[in-house]
Write a structure and sequence with these properties.
Layout lengths: L6 E7 L2 E9 L40 E6 L2 E5 L1 H7 L6 E9 L8 E9 L4 H14 L1 E9 L2 E10 L2 E9 L20 H13 L13 H14 L19 H18 L25
Parallel strand pairs: 1-5
Antiparallel strand pairs: 1-2, 2-6, 3-4, 5-7, 6-9, 7-8, 8-9
Helix pairs in contact: 3-5
Length: 290
């Protein structure tokens, strides 16, 4: 079934305007969520805003928005002022520049969307897609939506003849990894060699997303179905405990031994015998007659 677009936009490529449709790339309906209920009456609860000093419930009419510029000091903005501050949303996504696709640090990547051509824009859309693919570049775009200015990249996706729109975080929204304390230590060549051996034992040629499923969600869904049917449920409490590694070399060797034992225990693939092909007997050469 074809996806339903969220909105339509105009991708500005030089003097070329490409009408595009934006599609959500994620499926949120598969995630199980719970509601808060009254313990006895089982009615759904609602949250209320209240004054922590008096305990008085504050209605929506008495709520204003303010910015805390100092400790417990606020400057208040009216809804009209906030509305005037919002960037005007339009349907245009302007390409600011083209960058090498591999130069975009995943640290800045945010929400992903799919792009498709709107009516009559198929040829221009495909031209941009092919050009980005062949030049291995991504287009950095700017646009305003829902009261905020966004920066994003339009790029190709492997194995699909389309384009993706991926929002980016601004530089001041991303913390520097240099702030993470890592300590000072060294590893030995022998440890690296063993770790490499362990990595190679689990290495595959490519990542296959379909191999991985949210087992917790599947288990949860099964338990919910049992609950709905009134069946008794038994939930096993995990007993695994994680302990810090004290002897790194011993842990690596034990991991490799465990992988080797698992590989040996796995059923061997049936050997395919290739039928032997006998060489055809050559006819004896005729003797030349005088």
């Amino acid at each position: 079934m074809a996806l339903r677009s969220m909105q339509s936009n105009m991708l500005s490529f030089g003097l070329v305007n490409i009408p595009v449709k934006v599609y959500s790339a994620s499926e949120s309906s598969t995630k199980i969520s719970f509601n808060q209920l009254h313990a006895e009456k089982k009615t759904r609860l609602k949250q209320q805003m209240y004054d922590p000093e008096t305990g008085e419930v504050v209605t929506k009419d008495n709520i204003v928005k303010g910015y805390e510029f100092a400790k417990d000091q606020y400057v208040v903005f009216s809804e009209e002022e906030l509305k005037a501050l919002e960037p005007e949303s339009d349907k245009r996504m302007e390409i600011a520049e083209f960058v090498p696709a591999e130069s975009i640090d995943p640290l800045y990547l945010d929400t992903l969307y799919f792009l498709g051509p709107d009516k009559g824009a198929e040829r221009a859309f495909r031209l941009l897609m092919v050009t980005l693919s062949e030049t291995k570049r991504a287009a950095v775009v700017r646009y305003a939506s829902r009261g905020r200015e966004h920066v994003a990249v339009v790029r190709t996706l492997a194995g699909w003849d389309g384009l993706a729109l991926q929002q980016l975080r601004y530089a001041d929204e991303v913390r520097s990894p240099a702030e993470v304390p890592l300590g000072e230590t060294e590893v030995t060549p022998a440890e690296v060699a063993l770790a490499t051996q362990l990595v190679e034992a689990q290495a595959v040629s490519a990542f296959e997303p379909g191999k991985y499923k949210d087992e917790h969600q599947e288990k949860l869904r099964s338990i919910i179905e049992q609950k709905v049917k009134g069946e008794p449920i038994t939930i096993a409490v995990p007993t695994k405990t994680m302990v810090p590694v004290l002897d790194l070399m011993a842990a690596l060797k034990a991991s490799i031994d465990a992988k080797s034992a698992t590989a040996k225990a796995a059923p061997a693939k049936p050997e395919v015998k290739v039928p032997e092909v006998k060489a055809e007997a050559k006819a004896p050469k005729k003797k030349k007659t005088a």
